[in-house]
Design a protein that fits this description.
This protein is mainly β. The protein folds into two domains: about 120 residues, Fusion Protein Consisting Of Minor Coat Protein, Glycine Rich Linker, Tola, And A His Tag, Chain: A, Domain 2; about 210 residues, no CATH class. The chain contains four helices and 21 strands. Helix 2 runs antiparallel to helix 3. The two termini are about 25 Å apart.
């Protein structure tokens, strides 16, 4: 990769002089950071975001990191503070954490990289097939609960344990893993770090045309997978919509697709809230109902089929002016 020279010198100092003085950094904006260092930085960003709730969400933290030839971090800043601002409390926490980062890169000079990291904690785990790196080293020491679809009474949350089984195949080779869950026959997803729902069954949203008696009436016995449909990004029409009802109120999730970008929104109670940038061809609403017991709509959404991302959004975490707020994410790798 050919380095891109980006001025790192002060107003009165030329790039040539900065290079001679050893203060210039060359940009390798597409350089892939080693996996161990990437996990270290991602963990720092997520822990810092958790301490600043107004900065925790689905926007990426796009950073400009300058790294000495030794791997020590010289400094870290927002990549574009105007277009992609990062609040001062969050940025200050990240800068403090960066003192402990080590980012080996194999270059003989200071380099600049521009990685992006999600601000959400990876506190969601999906059962089934994974790459070994999907299963965090700290996962086994956490307490987990799962949304279980075990019978026709409807989904319920239960405390669970899980095990990882090695597998060798043509996709991930010897790094293939299977996550198996104990205490739940048909787990939809697993969560840690959040209070386990107590309602049995969990109140579910329904599609238009299905009976919806409100939060104090019996809920449909259909499983969540059968209630909510896949919503594709429609780049030709520019807009696609999924309609639903919960507790007697209508809501919509829409995808707005323009150019090469698609964004998901939630519309309810006269409000329209941006949720996240759709990174794939569409989203799947795996759960829509009440997980946190406040009688309002919560969502669990899958973004894409290949290397999908999973987002858990709760109404009880909503900030002023919001309907819902992302509190955790998960993912599964694809080969």
């Amino acid at each position: 990769m050919k380095p891109t020279a980006v001025a790192d010198a002060g107003a009165g100092e030329s790039v040539t002089a900065a290079i001679a003085a050893g203060t210039h950094c060359f940009s390798f904006l597409d350089l892939e950071i080693p996996e161990a260092a990437s996990r270290q930085i991602a963990g720092s960003v997520q822990r810092c975001a958790a301490t600043v709730p107004t900065q925790q969400g689905l926007e990426d933290a796009h950073l400009r990191i300058r790294i000495e030839s030794s791997g020590r971090v010289r400094d870290v800043k927002p990549f574009d503070p105007v277009a992609e601002p990062i609040g001062a409390p969050l940025m200050g926490c990240i800068q403090t954490a960066a003192r402990a980062w080590s980012i080996p890169h194999g270059k003989r000079q200071c380099i600049e990289v521009a990685p992006s990291f999600n601000r959400l904690p990876v506190d969601v785990l999906l059962p089934g097939y994974h790459h070994a790196d999907d299963v965090g080293a700290d996962f086994k020491t956490s307490r987990w609960w799962a949304v279980c679809l075990d019978d026709d009474a409807g989904p319920a949350a239960r405390p669970v344990r899980w095990t990882v089984h090695r597998r060798s195949d043509d996709c991930f080779g010897d790094d293939a893993r299977i996550v198996k869950v104990q205490g739940c026959r048909s787990p939809l997803f697993l969560v840690r770090g959040l209070a386990m729902p107590t309602a049995r069954p969990l109140p579910l949203a329904v599609l238009p045309g299905s009976p919806d008696g409100g939060s104090d009436a019996p809920w449909p016995v259909n499983k969540a997978h059968e209630l909510i449909a896949f919503l594709a990004a429609d780049y030709a029409a520019g807009r696609s919509v999924l309609d639903g009802r919960f507790a007697g109120q209508s809501w919509q999730v829409e995808i707005i697709a323009r150019g090469d970008r698609a964004d998901a929104f939630l519309i309810a109670n006269g409000k329209r809230q941006w949720l996240f940038k759709v990174d794939h061809e569409g989203i799947d609403m795996l759960f829509a109902g009440d997980l946190d017991g406040d009688g309002r709509l919560d969502l669990f959404i899958q973004d894409g089929d290949e290397a999908p991302l999973f987002y858990l959004l709760l109404s009880s975490a909503a900030l002023p002016g919001e309907l819902i707020h992302a509190v955790a994410m998960g993912f599964t790798s694809s080969c």
